Amino acid sequence: MEQPEGFVVPGKERKVCKLVKSLYGLKQPPKQWHAKFDQTMLANGFKINECDKCVYIKNTPNHEVIVCLYVDDMLIMSRDITDINATKGIFG
User: Fold this and answer.
1) Minimal CA–CA distance to 69: which of 40, 92, 26, 45?
2) Do 87 and 80 meet the contact criterion of CB atoms below 8 Å apart?
3) Which InterPro entries match (predicted)?
């Protein structure tokens, strides 16, 4: 989410506003969250599945890592636990 035009104070662009309306039910926050998730996955070598935009695949030297996203839940699959833990590490 971004602050409305005219409300941004120079030097404090990353500050937040107090919301008068709940974010639940709005279309913008989920779309922006998914865009940020896509950006993070692509930056870490994953590719988006063409058939299902919520499936991400990364080929490592020894194995394949598959991440399935459903709303705010994630399933990480690989034959190697090291790859799974490395993928978890992307998110903190």
Assistant:
1) 40
2) no
3) DNA/RNA_pol_sf, RVT_2
